[in-house]
Write a structure and sequence with these properties.
Blueprint (H helix, E strand, L loop, with lengths): L1 H9 L11 E4 L2 H14 L8 E4 L6 E6 L5 E7 L1 H6 L2 H5 L2 H6 L2 E5 L4 H14 L2 E5 L23 E2 L3 H15 L19 H17 L4 E5 L5 E5 L9 E5 L12 H14 L4 H16 L11 H13 L2 E3 L6
Parallel strand pairs: 1-2, 5-6, 6-7, 7-8
Antiparallel strand pairs: 3-4, 8-9, 9-10, 10-11
Helix pairs in contact: 1-9, 7-8, 9-10, 10-11
């Protein structure tokens, strides 16, 4: 819900209409979520996309932050979403998918439901944004033995660890027993600059592009975002654009990734280019960092636009040290 809320909040000024498809339990948390969505940000059809699963607990995440606002430990119970948002439930929104400009799919869903949404978007010609969620769940989108197993994905927004896992999953599909990664150094994924990150992750980015992803949106926290794309998966002509993070006073980093995705998707739906959209997404993320709430709320449009412009003005082209 956090990404959907951020998308609705960031898209208020441009009239972006947002729908939410998820599942909640028949409990107090579920009722509160439905009421909140309907009252504040409901787009097409109100909360009709929110399935109430009898006897199930609404998904809950408990996290512990360190002194910098970073998540130090986390326990998540999302079984309600994994089982409640099944393929049959997703299939009931085929008309909505056909009418949408972009669909956001996250890896909290099960493999069958993810495959169903991918097929729906491909059939409808609707852009698909895949959010890997975590290292463990990131590869749920990989099914079958296709030469381009992510051809339905227009945008994918992993962090470095999720990117490496996804790339390794693709390599395993292409060649059983293939090496886990051609870049085994820097296992902590700690980088001093965006260029360092690109040098370490270029082969993984190229793997996703070759697998069919239209745009890899690599999130790097305080280092910003690297947006990589390649025409028709031709990685020899790949481009890599760095969008810097907006400087901010960090209270909590919880929800920043969802704000980035939601803000970027709202801008894409309003007709922005991917780089302009990501600039707006980084601006949304900066607001999320300044609060201890998990959801983006009540953004001043003028302030958002100013931060987005600042990020866009700092955009630069990057090139990996070793051309893939």
């Amino acid at each position: 819900m956090n990404a959907a809320t951020a998308c609705a909040e960031a898209g208020r000024a441009t009239g972006v209409d947002v729908g939410l498809v998820t599942a909640v339990g028949n409990d107090a948390a579920g009722r509160a979520l439905r009421e909140s969505w309907t009252r504040r940000v409901a787009g097409r059809g109100g909360d009709r996309g929110v399935r109430v699963v009898r006897g199930s607990r609404t998904a809950t995440v408990v996290g512990v932050l360190d002194g910098t606002g970073e998540l130090a430990a986390c326990v998540a119970d999302v079984e309600c979403v994994e089982t409640g948002v099944d393929a049959a439930w997703c299939d009931g929104f085929a008309m909505d998918v056909r009418e949408a400009s972009i669909v956001v799919l996250d890896a909290n869903l099960g493999r069958e439901a993810i495959a169903t949404v991918c097929d729906m978007c491909s059939s409808a010609g609707t852009a698909l944004w895949y959010e890997p969620v975590s290292v463990e769940k990131s590869t749920r989108i990989l099914t079958g033995n296709s030469a381009r197993p992510m051809a339905s994905v227009n945008y994918c927004s992993p962090n470095a660890a999720e990117l490496r896992e996804l790339a390794n999953g693709i390599r395993r599909m292409w060649a059983k027993g293939s090496p886990m990664s051609p870049c085994p150094f820097n296992p902590e994924f700690e980088f001093e600059t965006a260029s360092d990150a690109l040098n370490a992750m270029a082969s993984d980015i190229s793997t996703l592009l070759a697998a069919g992803v239209g745009n890899v949106v690599l999130t790097l926290g305080p280092l910003g975002v690297i947006v990589s794309s390649a025409p028709d998966g031709d990685i020899s002509h790949a481009t890599h654009v760095h969008v810097p993070a907006v400087p901010t006073r960090v209270v909590s980093l919880v929800g920043a990734g969802d704000a980035l995705v939601g803000g970027t998707v709202a801008a894409l739906a309003a007709g922005s280019s991917i780089i302009a959209a990501v600039s707006r997404g980084t601006a949304c993320a900066s607001f999320a960092c300044e609060t201890n709430r998990a959801t983006l709320d009540a953004i001043d449009e003028a302030a958002l636009e100013a931060r987005a412009t600042s990020a866009y003005n700092g955009v630069s082209l990057l090139a990996p040290a070793v051309v893939q």
